[in-house]
Design a protein that fits this description.
single chain, 291 residues, mainly alpha, 73% helix, globular
């Protein structure tokens, strides 16, 4: 493989990893703080993508830029309603109960999406400013791939700053260890839970907008992304943002290499990798065993 081909494949792998990281970061953040397994996370992603297609149809030039703000806010609003209306009652329940409840929400949101947007497949184009290719060491690289990579870097850095260098981040980390003591100190733990869940939903909606120009927007993409996001989170360690980044990078590389060398086995390699990690470290690469 020459240098140009290597760079092309590397950027493709990083682009895949970046889109997976943004959606998986929201999933693992919610689990880390709330200890909640949320299958409805894929619904927020799908709604973000569908809203982007509607806004682009309304305004081809500015629709996607508006969607970058509107879709994450819509997803965050959905998250608030879901957390307050349903999930708040399930935090003390076992994970199986949470899975069943959030799976029911996934089906409900999927049915509503069919009523709003129908069964057809939709697509959008990137804004003209980020269309076309750029050349890196002689290799043509889609400019929009670099945009996705940049978005993931911004999201990762923002989450790191939030969790490590702000009072809110301290509260989020504290609620994981001892929510009773945090509540006794005067913190509104319920509101904190709602905020964290809304942030996770916002990241899912943002990921849906970012990925819309790269793949078909259609019913069923909610289930597809939640499987991929869970694989990333499980490999990296549920609750670890850094683990989600590493898991997404590993999956991006494995998927890209597999698609080049053994296309019919590409998806199988990902599941085999997850099984291997679970066999060696059931809590993931950077996760911690549940107490």
């Amino acid at each position: 493989m020459d240098l140009a081909s290597f760079i092309t494949h590397l950027v493709g792998a990083l682009s895949t990893a970046s889109s997976l990281f943004i959606v998986a970061a929201g999933l693992t953040l919610v689990f880390g703080a709330l200890r909640l397994i949320n299958l409805a996370h894929g619904s927020f992603y799908m709604y973000g993508a569908f809203l982007a297609t509607s806004l682009v149809a309304w305004s081809a030039h500015t629709g996607l830029w508006i969607a970058l703000v509107a879709s994450p806010l819509l997803a965050a609003g959905m998250g608030v309603v879901v957390e307050v209306g349903v999930l708040r009652r399930l935090y003390a329940r076992e994970h199986l109960t949470q899975l069943l409840a959030t799976f029911a929400l996934l089906l409900i949101f999927a049915d509503l999406a069919l009523r709003f947007w129908g069964k057809g497949v939709r697509s959008v184009s990137p804004p003209p400013i980020v269309q076309g290719n750029v050349h890196l060491a002689g290799a043509p690289v889609p400019l929009y791939d670099l945009v996705i990579i940049g978005a993931a870097v911004i999201v990762g850095a923002s989450l790191w700053l939030l969790l490590s260098h702000t009072t809110l981040g301290w509260k989020i980390r504290a609620v994981v260890d001892d929510p009773e003591v945090l509540a006794a100190s005067g913190v509104n733990v319920r509101m904190l839970y709602t905020g964290v869940f809304a942030l996770g939903a916002l990241l899912a909606g943002l990921s849906g907008v970012i990925i819309a120009p790269q793949q078909a927007v259609e019913p069923g993409m909610d289930a597809q992304i939640i499987v991929a996001a869970f694989i990333v989170a499980v490999i990296g360690g549920l609750g670890s943002i850094t683990g989600a980044a590493i898991g997404a990078l590993v999956i991006g590389i494995v998927e890209t290499v597999g698609a080049s060398w053994a296309p019919s086995w590409a998806s199988t390699f990902i599941y085999l990798l997850m099984i291997l990690v679970l066999a060696v470290r059931p809590w993931g690469l950077l996760g911690t065993p549940e107490r």
